[in-house]
């Protein structure tokens, strides 16, 4: 047995390298079942982040359906999702470069379906009766905001016809199993889909046009999610009308709750195509619910209301798909010790098959840190939530009396959530001797609507308080070094990071990945989907320009007194790069240690292997220079202004 080496926290040698992460892991993003054929979408950092549709046939053969240079990714709402749909062996998908829809079958080359025009498509459904797709279309051909509509696209000649229009946003068009009805979701500015949506239905006339459209459920203060028709034609959906996203059905004109409980059966609609439930039969539904931030898989009998938990090792479950004809269930899942995987489950026998794993890295469990669920006191006598990862490395121990530095992570969204699954970027840090607190601050999903609404009008305050209080809580318990508290986040998490550094004195350094520094600039410059998001998070703009200035770190650099590093994609249309550049120049002028790492060709989030690696290594290098410890491995240095010699 190898002798444990004593070394300072942060300097431990680990097999979980940035090279291993970008070389050995793909992103798993969606699934589909077509009889016994299995499909999934994977993002490959080694191919520049290209999204590839992969097919496994019933005999076990696996092949890519979308060859180079095709990239199956839509840009509707900029965040995309709902990139492809499958029917009878044919896949219809959106291609990133031109945003046209294409069709492809196994062994064939993709063929264009839609015209070369400035339209984007997402969330497709197949209307078998009329040989057409029904999809959300985002029209960028005019001036001003793009126009969102639900359209039908003829599978023969690609002709398009508008079916539903007039509102700001649409999602989830679903054709009934008999082809005679259509359901969809819609909402208007300033709401986001987790604030309030409406569920509509209509019949489909002989010419395929909607007739007799009516609102079934929802409104400005009720969020409806994932409408689906059961195999026998009963409309089901998820609603948070009670304060929790629960399952309902529409039967005989009445809305019936199916399994009332204080758990979340829905998710915020940041992207299209998300699915938390799927039909195994007309009366049996496989569903993923979230309790206290952890997913559980169950099978609901809609006649008895009984929800039987399915025994699995997974703490995160997404993209549930089923084929009621075969009883098959497919989903993406992960656990604290297993990387995400496409999983097929027989709900009758409980037999599980891993179809595709995000990475078969063979990491010894002795280098993995298991997350601990933590609840801690925060402002107003309330409780906030998170997952704590202590340092873990079987080969190393710290000098006696030393406490580890703590990295607090603030997730994006901010109406998102952090998940207790195997995150190699977290393990990259904990296996080197960092402790990590991944915070589900007030405003996060997974704890009910009341918790989610804590951030209403309070972005830059509640989230910051919760991150700071989580760090202080762990330091107060003697688990981490209160003098070496760090904070990092991406996108909205980057905003929380910068606010925490500008408006609190809790943290000694921070890292912003494509983060917001100027809330007013975000309100003025961002894309349609989020253009009124800040109305609810801060206040209407420009009427409350004073609040935007008050909450924008770029106007309060006098409050910053610690080192910061910025990572930014130069083609980011969600958070334009000038925000990071301006903040960097201000801190440089102030004389603080600061670094700026721009990435050509990257948008909102990094997809290319070399850039993911550079960000991982660069952040670690920055911390080593700030706190004065040596890294176990050589990494390419980052130029740190006001710290490095000219």
What is the element layout, followed by pairings?
Blueprint: E1 5-6, H1 18-24, E2 27-34, E3 37-44, E4 50-56, E5 62-64, E6 84-87, E7 90-94, E8 101-105, E9 111-112, E10 119-127, E11 132-139, E12 147-154, E13 160-164, E14 169-175, E15 181-187, E16 198-204, E17 210-218, E18 224-229, E19 235-239, E20 246-251, E21 254-257, E22 277-281, E23 284-291, E24 294-301, E25 307-309, E26 316-323, E27 328-334, E28 341-346, E29 352-357, E30 372-377, E31 383-389, E32 396-397, E33 406-410, H2 424-430, E34 435-440, H3 449-452, H4 462-476, E35 485-490, H5 492-503, E36 509-513, H6 519-525, H7 533-537, H8 545-550, E37 564-569, H9 578-590, E38 594-599, H10 609-627
Helix pairs in contact: 1-10, 4-5
């Amino acid at each position: 047995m190898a002798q444990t080496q004593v070394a300072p926290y942060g300097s431990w040698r680990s097999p979980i390298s940035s090279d291993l992460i970008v070389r050995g892991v793909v992103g798993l993003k969606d699934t589909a079942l077509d009889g016994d054929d299995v499909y999934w979408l994977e993002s490959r950092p080694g191919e520049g982040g290209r999204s590839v549709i992969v097919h496994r046939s019933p005999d076990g053969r696996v092949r890519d359906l979308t060859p180079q240079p095709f990239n199956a990714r839509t840009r509707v709402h900029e965040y995309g999702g709902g990139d492809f749909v499958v029917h009878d062996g044919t896949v219809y998908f959106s291609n990133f470069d031109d945003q046209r829809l294409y069709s492809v079958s196994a062994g064939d080359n993709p063929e264009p379906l839609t015209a070369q025009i400035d339209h984007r498509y997402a969330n497709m459904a197949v209307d078998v009766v009329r040989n057409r797709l029904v999809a959300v279309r985002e029209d960028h051909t005019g001036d001003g905001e793009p126009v969102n509509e639900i359209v039908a696209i003829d599978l023969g000649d690609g002709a398009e016809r508008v079916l539903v229009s007039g509102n700001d946003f649409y999602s989830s068009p679903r054709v009934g199993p008999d082809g005679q009805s259509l359901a969809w979701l819609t909402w208007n500015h300033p709401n986001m889909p987790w604030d309030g949506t409406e569920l509509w239905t209509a019949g489909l006339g002989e010419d395929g046009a909607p007739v007799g459209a009516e609102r079934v459920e929802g409104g400005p203060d009720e969020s409806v999610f994932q409408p689906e028709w059961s195999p026998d034609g009963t409309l089901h959906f998820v609603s948070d009308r009670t304060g929790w996203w629960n399952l309902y059905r529409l039967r005989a004109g009445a809305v019936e709750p199916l399994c009332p409980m204080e758990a979340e059966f829905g998710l915020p609609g940041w992207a299209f195509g998300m699915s938390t439930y799927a039909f195994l039969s007309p009366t049996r539904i496989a569903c993923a619910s979230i309790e206290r931030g952890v997913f559980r898989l169950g099978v609901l009998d809609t006649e008895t209301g009984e929800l039987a938990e399915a025994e699995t090792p997974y703490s995160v479950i997404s993209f549930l798909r089923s084929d009621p004809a075969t009883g098959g269930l497919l989903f993406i899942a992960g656990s604290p010790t297993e990387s995400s995987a496409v999983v097929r489950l027989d709900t009758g026998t409980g037999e599980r098959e891993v179809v595709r794993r995000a990475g078969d890295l063979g990491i010894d469990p002795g280098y993995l840190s298991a997350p601990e669920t933590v609840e801690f006191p925060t402002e107003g006598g309330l409780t906030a939530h998170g997952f704590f990862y202590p340092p873990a490395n079987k080969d190393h121990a710290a000098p006696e009396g030393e406490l580890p530095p703590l990295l607090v992570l603030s997730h994006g969204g901010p109406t998102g959530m952090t998940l207790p699954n195997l995150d190699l970027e977290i393990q990259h840090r904990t296996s080197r001797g960092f402790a990590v607190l991944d915070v589900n601050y007030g405003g996060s999903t997974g704890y009910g609507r009341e918790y989610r609404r804590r951030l209403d009008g309070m972005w830059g305050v509640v989230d910051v308080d919760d991150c700071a209080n989580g760090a202080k809580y762990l330091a107060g318990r003697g688990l981490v070094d209160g003098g070496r508290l760090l904070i990092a986040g991406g996108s909205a998490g980057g905003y929380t990071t910068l606010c925490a550094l500008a408006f609190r004195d809790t943290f000694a350094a921070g890292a912003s990945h494509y983060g917001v520094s100027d809330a007013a600039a975000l309100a003025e410059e961002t894309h349609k989907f989020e253009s009124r998001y800040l109305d609810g998070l801060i206040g209407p703009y420009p009427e409350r320009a004073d609040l935007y200035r008050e909450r924008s770190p770029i106007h309060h650099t006098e409050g910053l007194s610690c080192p910061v590093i910025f990572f930014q994609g130069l083609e980011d249309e969600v958070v334009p790069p000038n925000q990071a550049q301006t903040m960097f120049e201000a801190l440089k002028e102030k004389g603080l240690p600061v670094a700026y790492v721009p990435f050509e060709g990257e948008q909102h989030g990094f997809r290319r292997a070399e850039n993911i690696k550079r960000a991982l290594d660069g952040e670690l290098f920055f911390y080593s220079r700030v706190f004065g410890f040596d890294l176990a491995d050589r990494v390419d240095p980052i130029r740190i202004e006001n710290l490095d010699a000219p």
